[in-house]
Amino acid sequence: MKQSIIPMALSLFFIVSCRTKSESNSESNEMAETAQEMEAPAPDFQISLAQWSFNKAYLGPRKDGYWEWFVKTLQESPDDILQGDADPVNFPEMAAKFGIESIELVNTFYYGKVDDQAFWDDFKNRCDDAGVSVGLIMCDALGNLGDADAEARTKTVENHHKWVDIAKFLGAHSIRVNAAGSGTAEEVAANAVDGLKQLGAYGASQGINIIVENHGGYSSDASWLAGVMAQVDMDNVGTLPDFGNFCIERGPDGCVNEYDRYKGMAELMPYAKGVSAKSHDFDEDGNETSTDFYKVLKIVKDSGFKGYIGIEYEGSTLSEEEGIEATLALLQKAIDSVN
Fold this sequence. Notes:
This protein has helices at residues 2-39, 55-59, 66-76, 91-96, 117-130, 150-170, 185-206, 222-232, 261-268, 293-302, 320-338; strands at 45-50, 102-106, 133-138, 174-177, 209-213, 237-240, 247-251, 254-258, 275-279, 307-313. It contains eleven helices and ten strands. The radius of gyration is 26 Å and the shape is globular.
Protein backbone atom coordinates (compact mmCIF):
# COMPACT_ATOMS: atom_id res chain seq x y z
CA MET A 1 0.00 0.00 0.00
CA LYS A 2 2.75 2.43 0.82
CA GLN A 3 4.42 1.78 -2.51
CA SER A 4 1.22 2.60 -4.42
CA ILE A 5 0.54 5.73 -2.39
CA ILE A 6 3.79 7.41 -3.41
CA PRO A 7 3.17 7.43 -7.17
CA MET A 8 -0.40 8.58 -6.54
CA ALA A 9 0.82 11.40 -4.33
CA LEU A 10 3.37 12.42 -6.92
CA SER A 11 0.70 12.34 -9.56
CA LEU A 12 -1.60 14.52 -7.48
CA PHE A 13 1.28 16.89 -6.76
CA PHE A 14 2.03 17.13 -10.48
CA ILE A 15 -1.60 17.92 -11.32
CA VAL A 16 -1.92 20.51 -8.59
CA SER A 17 1.43 22.05 -9.49
CA CYS A 18 0.51 22.26 -13.18
CA ARG A 19 -2.86 23.74 -12.36
CA THR A 20 -1.33 26.26 -9.98
CA LYS A 21 1.31 27.16 -12.52
CA SER A 22 -1.31 27.54 -15.26
CA GLU A 23 -3.52 29.67 -13.05
CA SER A 24 -0.51 31.71 -12.01
CA ASN A 25 0.47 32.29 -15.63
CA SER A 26 -3.09 33.29 -16.46
CA GLU A 27 -3.19 35.72 -13.57
CA SER A 28 0.21 37.11 -14.57
CA ASN A 29 -0.98 37.61 -18.14
CA GLU A 30 -4.12 39.37 -16.95
CA MET A 31 -2.08 41.60 -14.65
CA ALA A 32 0.35 42.39 -17.47
CA GLU A 33 -2.53 43.28 -19.81
CA THR A 34 -4.11 45.45 -17.12
CA ALA A 35 -0.78 47.17 -16.49
CA GLN A 36 -0.38 47.82 -20.20
CA GLU A 37 -3.87 49.30 -20.36
CA MET A 38 -3.14 51.50 -17.36
CA GLU A 39 0.17 52.63 -18.82
CA ALA A 40 -1.22 53.27 -22.32
CA PRO A 41 -1.33 57.04 -22.77
CA ALA A 42 -4.59 58.71 -23.73
CA PRO A 43 -4.66 59.89 -27.35
CA ASP A 44 -3.66 63.50 -27.84
CA PHE A 45 -6.91 64.24 -29.67
CA GLN A 46 -10.43 62.97 -29.11
CA ILE A 47 -13.47 63.85 -31.20
CA SER A 48 -16.66 65.43 -29.90
CA LEU A 49 -19.81 66.63 -31.65
CA ALA A 50 -21.15 70.17 -31.48
CA GLN A 51 -24.94 70.28 -31.27
CA TRP A 52 -25.13 73.15 -33.76
CA SER A 53 -24.44 70.51 -36.43
CA PHE A 54 -28.14 69.59 -36.03
CA ASN A 55 -29.47 73.16 -35.96
CA LYS A 56 -31.76 72.65 -38.97
CA ALA A 57 -33.20 69.50 -37.47
CA TYR A 58 -34.08 71.43 -34.31
CA LEU A 59 -35.01 74.87 -35.63
CA GLY A 60 -36.76 73.94 -38.86
CA PRO A 61 -36.97 75.98 -42.09
CA ARG A 62 -35.91 79.64 -42.22
CA LYS A 63 -37.83 82.51 -43.81
CA ASP A 64 -37.09 86.17 -44.38
CA GLY A 65 -36.76 87.95 -41.05
CA TYR A 66 -36.11 84.63 -39.33
CA TRP A 67 -33.37 85.81 -36.96
CA GLU A 68 -35.36 88.79 -35.74
CA TRP A 69 -38.19 86.36 -34.98
CA PHE A 70 -35.73 83.96 -33.34
CA VAL A 71 -34.32 86.56 -30.94
CA LYS A 72 -37.77 87.84 -29.96
CA THR A 73 -39.24 84.35 -29.52
CA LEU A 74 -36.23 83.12 -27.54
CA GLN A 75 -36.89 85.76 -24.90
CA GLU A 76 -40.68 85.45 -24.84
CA SER A 77 -41.37 81.76 -25.47
CA PRO A 78 -38.07 79.91 -25.92
CA ASP A 79 -39.46 76.45 -26.65
CA ASP A 80 -41.24 77.87 -29.69
CA ILE A 81 -37.94 78.33 -31.56
CA LEU A 82 -37.85 74.53 -31.91
CA GLN A 83 -39.80 74.20 -35.16
CA GLY A 84 -37.88 71.22 -36.52
CA ASP A 85 -38.60 67.49 -36.46
CA ALA A 86 -35.89 66.57 -33.93
CA ASP A 87 -35.93 67.11 -30.16
CA PRO A 88 -32.71 68.43 -28.53
CA VAL A 89 -33.32 66.18 -25.54
CA ASN A 90 -32.34 63.24 -27.76
CA PHE A 91 -28.95 64.68 -28.71
CA PRO A 92 -26.94 62.16 -26.61
CA GLU A 93 -28.49 59.25 -28.52
CA MET A 94 -28.08 61.05 -31.86
CA ALA A 95 -24.36 61.58 -31.21
CA ALA A 96 -23.79 58.03 -30.04
CA LYS A 97 -24.96 56.70 -33.42
CA PHE A 98 -21.79 58.20 -34.93
CA GLY A 99 -19.61 56.45 -32.37
CA ILE A 100 -18.94 59.78 -30.65
CA GLU A 101 -18.65 59.79 -26.86
CA SER A 102 -18.53 63.50 -26.02
CA ILE A 103 -21.02 66.23 -26.92
CA GLU A 104 -21.10 70.02 -26.94
CA LEU A 105 -24.47 71.52 -26.08
CA VAL A 106 -25.99 74.78 -27.36
CA ASN A 107 -27.78 76.65 -24.59
CA THR A 108 -30.40 78.26 -26.85
CA PHE A 109 -31.89 74.83 -27.57
CA TYR A 110 -32.56 74.54 -23.82
CA TYR A 111 -33.11 78.20 -23.03
CA GLY A 112 -36.40 77.61 -21.25
CA LYS A 113 -34.98 74.74 -19.18
CA VAL A 114 -32.32 76.71 -17.34
CA ASP A 115 -34.15 76.44 -13.99
CA ASP A 116 -35.70 73.02 -14.60
CA GLN A 117 -33.61 70.63 -12.49
CA ALA A 118 -35.87 67.68 -13.31
CA PHE A 119 -35.08 68.21 -16.98
CA TRP A 120 -31.34 68.17 -16.33
CA ASP A 121 -31.62 65.09 -14.12
CA ASP A 122 -33.33 63.34 -17.01
CA PHE A 123 -30.82 64.67 -19.54
CA LYS A 124 -27.90 63.41 -17.48
CA ASN A 125 -29.52 59.98 -17.35
CA ARG A 126 -29.92 60.06 -21.13
CA CYS A 127 -26.22 60.81 -21.48
CA ASP A 128 -25.36 57.89 -19.21
CA ASP A 129 -27.67 55.56 -21.13
CA ALA A 130 -26.14 56.62 -24.46
CA GLY A 131 -22.59 56.34 -23.15
CA VAL A 132 -21.68 59.96 -23.85
CA SER A 133 -20.37 62.79 -21.70
CA VAL A 134 -20.97 66.53 -21.96
CA GLY A 135 -17.75 68.38 -22.73
CA LEU A 136 -18.95 71.96 -22.91
CA ILE A 137 -21.99 74.18 -23.29
CA MET A 138 -21.99 76.91 -25.95
CA CYS A 139 -23.71 79.95 -24.45
CA ASP A 140 -25.39 82.67 -26.50
CA ALA A 141 -28.14 85.28 -26.03
CA LEU A 142 -27.12 86.10 -22.45
CA GLY A 143 -25.84 89.64 -23.03
CA ASN A 144 -22.44 91.06 -23.97
CA LEU A 145 -19.43 90.36 -21.76
CA GLY A 146 -17.79 93.37 -23.40
CA ASP A 147 -20.75 95.69 -22.84
CA ALA A 148 -19.74 99.33 -22.39
CA ASP A 149 -22.20 99.71 -19.51
CA ALA A 150 -20.69 98.27 -16.32
CA GLU A 151 -24.06 97.28 -14.81
CA ALA A 152 -25.17 95.57 -18.02
CA ARG A 153 -21.82 93.79 -18.17
CA THR A 154 -22.19 92.51 -14.62
CA LYS A 155 -25.75 91.40 -15.40
CA THR A 156 -24.41 89.44 -18.37
CA VAL A 157 -21.86 87.75 -16.12
CA GLU A 158 -24.64 86.80 -13.71
CA ASN A 159 -26.76 85.44 -16.58
CA HIS A 160 -23.96 82.97 -17.30
CA HIS A 161 -23.80 81.70 -13.70
CA LYS A 162 -26.69 79.27 -14.11
CA TRP A 163 -25.07 77.75 -17.20
CA VAL A 164 -21.83 77.34 -15.29
CA ASP A 165 -23.84 75.48 -12.65
CA ILE A 166 -25.50 73.27 -15.27
CA ALA A 167 -22.10 72.54 -16.83
CA LYS A 168 -20.79 71.45 -13.45
CA PHE A 169 -23.83 69.25 -12.82
CA LEU A 170 -23.45 67.54 -16.19
CA GLY A 171 -19.72 67.00 -15.68
CA ALA A 172 -18.60 69.40 -18.44
CA HIS A 173 -15.22 71.09 -18.38
CA SER A 174 -16.20 74.44 -19.94
CA ILE A 175 -18.79 76.88 -21.15
CA ARG A 176 -18.17 78.75 -24.40
CA VAL A 177 -18.93 82.48 -24.27
CA ASN A 178 -18.70 85.50 -26.58
CA ALA A 179 -16.44 88.51 -26.09
CA ALA A 180 -18.77 90.99 -27.76
CA GLY A 181 -19.57 94.64 -27.15
CA SER A 182 -19.84 98.05 -28.78
CA GLY A 183 -17.15 100.66 -29.22
CA THR A 184 -13.63 100.70 -30.58
CA ALA A 185 -11.49 97.59 -30.58
CA GLU A 186 -9.57 98.92 -27.58
CA GLU A 187 -12.74 99.81 -25.66
CA VAL A 188 -14.42 96.43 -26.26
CA ALA A 189 -11.19 94.65 -25.34
CA ALA A 190 -10.96 96.48 -22.01
CA ASN A 191 -14.61 95.77 -21.21
CA ALA A 192 -14.33 92.13 -22.29
CA VAL A 193 -11.31 91.66 -20.05
CA ASP A 194 -13.34 92.92 -17.11
CA GLY A 195 -16.36 90.74 -17.95
CA LEU A 196 -14.22 87.63 -18.48
CA LYS A 197 -12.36 88.17 -15.22
CA GLN A 198 -15.66 88.41 -13.34
CA LEU A 199 -17.06 85.31 -14.98
CA GLY A 200 -13.73 83.52 -14.76
CA ALA A 201 -13.73 83.96 -10.99
CA TYR A 202 -17.15 82.34 -10.70
CA GLY A 203 -16.16 79.58 -13.11
CA ALA A 204 -13.05 78.86 -11.06
CA SER A 205 -15.17 78.51 -7.91
CA GLN A 206 -17.15 75.78 -9.67
CA GLY A 207 -14.23 74.13 -11.47
CA ILE A 208 -15.43 75.26 -14.91
CA ASN A 209 -13.42 76.85 -17.70
CA ILE A 210 -14.66 79.96 -19.50
CA ILE A 211 -13.63 79.77 -23.14
CA VAL A 212 -14.08 82.34 -25.89
CA GLU A 213 -14.67 81.40 -29.52
CA ASN A 214 -13.66 83.49 -32.50
CA HIS A 215 -17.31 84.17 -33.28
CA GLY A 216 -17.61 87.29 -35.40
CA GLY A 217 -16.75 90.94 -34.92
CA TYR A 218 -13.55 91.76 -33.07
CA SER A 219 -13.30 88.21 -31.71
CA SER A 220 -12.64 86.90 -35.23
CA ASP A 221 -9.49 89.02 -35.29
CA ALA A 222 -7.24 86.46 -33.63
CA SER A 223 -4.62 88.98 -32.61
CA TRP A 224 -7.33 90.97 -30.79
CA LEU A 225 -8.67 87.90 -28.99
CA ALA A 226 -5.19 86.66 -28.08
CA GLY A 227 -4.53 90.10 -26.61
CA VAL A 228 -7.68 89.87 -24.50
CA MET A 229 -6.57 86.44 -23.22
CA ALA A 230 -3.14 87.78 -22.30
CA GLN A 231 -4.74 90.58 -20.29
CA VAL A 232 -7.23 88.29 -18.52
CA ASP A 233 -4.37 85.94 -17.59
CA MET A 234 -6.46 83.35 -15.68
CA ASP A 235 -5.84 79.61 -15.72
CA ASN A 236 -9.49 78.76 -16.38
CA VAL A 237 -10.12 81.38 -19.07
CA GLY A 238 -9.09 80.43 -22.58
CA THR A 239 -10.15 80.07 -26.18
CA LEU A 240 -12.13 77.73 -28.42
CA PRO A 241 -10.40 78.26 -31.79
CA ASP A 242 -12.80 77.57 -34.65
CA PHE A 243 -11.36 76.52 -38.02
CA GLY A 244 -13.75 78.70 -39.99
CA ASN A 245 -14.99 81.63 -37.87
CA PHE A 246 -12.53 84.30 -38.96
CA CYS A 247 -14.91 86.70 -40.70
CA ILE A 248 -14.55 90.06 -38.94
CA GLU A 249 -17.09 91.91 -41.07
CA ARG A 250 -19.90 90.71 -43.32
CA GLY A 251 -21.60 92.47 -46.19
CA PRO A 252 -24.75 91.71 -48.22
CA ASP A 253 -22.86 89.20 -50.37
CA GLY A 254 -20.73 87.56 -47.71
CA CYS A 255 -17.56 88.26 -45.79
CA VAL A 256 -15.79 91.51 -46.69
CA ASN A 257 -13.02 91.35 -44.07
CA GLU A 258 -11.60 87.95 -43.17
CA TYR A 259 -8.64 87.15 -40.96
CA ASP A 260 -6.18 84.53 -42.19
CA ARG A 261 -7.47 81.32 -40.62
CA TYR A 262 -4.12 79.57 -40.36
CA LYS A 263 -2.42 82.57 -38.77
CA GLY A 264 -5.45 82.95 -36.51
CA MET A 265 -5.41 79.33 -35.39
CA ALA A 266 -1.71 79.60 -34.54
CA GLU A 267 -2.36 82.75 -32.48
CA LEU A 268 -5.31 81.29 -30.55
CA MET A 269 -4.01 77.78 -29.87
CA PRO A 270 -1.72 78.76 -26.96
CA TYR A 271 -4.88 79.62 -24.99
CA ALA A 272 -7.06 76.77 -26.29
CA LYS A 273 -9.05 74.48 -24.00
CA GLY A 274 -10.98 73.01 -26.92
CA VAL A 275 -11.02 73.20 -30.71
CA SER A 276 -13.94 73.48 -33.14
CA ALA A 277 -13.62 71.77 -36.53
CA LYS A 278 -15.96 73.88 -38.68
CA SER A 279 -16.97 72.42 -42.05
CA HIS A 280 -19.26 73.42 -44.90
CA ASP A 281 -18.55 71.68 -48.20
CA PHE A 282 -16.34 68.84 -49.41
CA ASP A 283 -14.65 68.02 -52.72
CA GLU A 284 -14.70 64.60 -54.42
CA ASP A 285 -11.73 63.49 -52.32
CA GLY A 286 -13.51 64.28 -49.07
CA ASN A 287 -11.50 67.41 -48.28
CA GLU A 288 -13.17 70.54 -46.90
CA THR A 289 -13.19 73.15 -49.65
CA SER A 290 -12.46 76.21 -47.48
CA THR A 291 -10.07 74.85 -44.85
CA ASP A 292 -7.07 72.56 -45.17
CA PHE A 293 -7.78 70.24 -42.24
CA TYR A 294 -4.31 68.69 -42.50
CA LYS A 295 -2.64 72.09 -42.22
CA VAL A 296 -4.81 73.12 -39.29
CA LEU A 297 -4.23 69.86 -37.43
CA LYS A 298 -0.48 70.39 -37.80
CA ILE A 299 -0.92 73.81 -36.16
CA VAL A 300 -3.01 72.26 -33.37
CA LYS A 301 -0.46 69.49 -32.84
CA ASP A 302 2.52 71.87 -32.81
CA SER A 303 0.83 74.02 -30.16
CA GLY A 304 1.00 71.15 -27.69
CA PHE A 305 -2.77 71.03 -27.30
CA LYS A 306 -4.29 67.79 -26.10
CA GLY A 307 -8.03 67.35 -25.80
CA TYR A 308 -11.29 67.36 -27.72
CA ILE A 309 -11.81 68.60 -31.25
CA GLY A 310 -15.50 69.18 -31.90
CA ILE A 311 -17.22 68.55 -35.23
CA GLU A 312 -19.40 71.50 -36.26
CA TYR A 313 -20.98 71.00 -39.66
CA GLU A 314 -22.77 74.04 -41.12
CA GLY A 315 -23.09 73.11 -44.78
CA SER A 316 -26.16 72.85 -46.97
CA THR A 317 -25.08 70.56 -49.81
CA LEU A 318 -25.05 67.44 -47.65
CA SER A 319 -27.66 66.53 -45.07
CA GLU A 320 -26.67 67.18 -41.48
CA GLU A 321 -26.03 63.47 -40.90
CA GLU A 322 -23.95 63.18 -44.09
CA GLY A 323 -22.04 66.35 -43.25
CA ILE A 324 -21.20 65.07 -39.78
CA GLU A 325 -20.01 61.75 -41.23
CA ALA A 326 -17.89 63.53 -43.86
CA THR A 327 -16.32 65.80 -41.25
CA LEU A 328 -15.67 62.86 -38.93
CA ALA A 329 -13.94 60.89 -41.69
CA LEU A 330 -11.77 63.86 -42.71
CA LEU A 331 -10.93 64.77 -39.13
CA GLN A 332 -9.83 61.22 -38.35
CA LYS A 333 -7.54 61.20 -41.40
CA ALA A 334 -6.08 64.59 -40.48
CA ILE A 335 -5.46 63.47 -36.89
CA ASP A 336 -3.76 60.29 -38.12
CA SER A 337 -1.52 62.40 -40.36
CA VAL A 338 -0.01 64.28 -37.40
CA ASN A 339 0.22 61.38 -34.94
